[in-house]
Description:
The chain has 157 residues and is mainly β. 9% of the residues lie in helices and 38% in strands.
Amino acid sequence: MNSVELIGRLTRDPEVRYTSGSQMAVASFTIAIDRPQRQDGGEKQTDFPRITVFGRQAETCEKYLKKGRMVAIQGRIQTGSYTNKNGDTVYTTDVVANRVEFIDWGNQNGQGSQGYGQNQGGYSAPQAQSAPAQSQAPAQDDDMPDSFEAIDEDVPF
């Protein structure tokens, strides 16, 4: 089985190129993923896997993703190699994404944040339909497991 799921922040804006034959879009970018902290308090470590996305999803990534945005990636590992101009063989490992989910839309410093549902450079995300909390709640609280609590606020998506 070759399956990968990652969550991280883009280290740079996606770069898109098009294949010569079919003119299919190919986007590539890297994300920063923190490794879990060790028990002994060792130094924090981060991985920077390269992500490759194909087709319309690649064009969507180019249009809406920017450096610093958090994404979830689902895909597979692919290894390869090429010979550089010095004649050395360079080995590569990429994550080929078949699904990219945008986890946040806003900038990271909190100024001018573009929340979900606001205009994103010509793209308008669907607005959440809000209904009174009373109509959403079950008829009896006895049906709800003890570990769940009812909330009276709107869901942000």
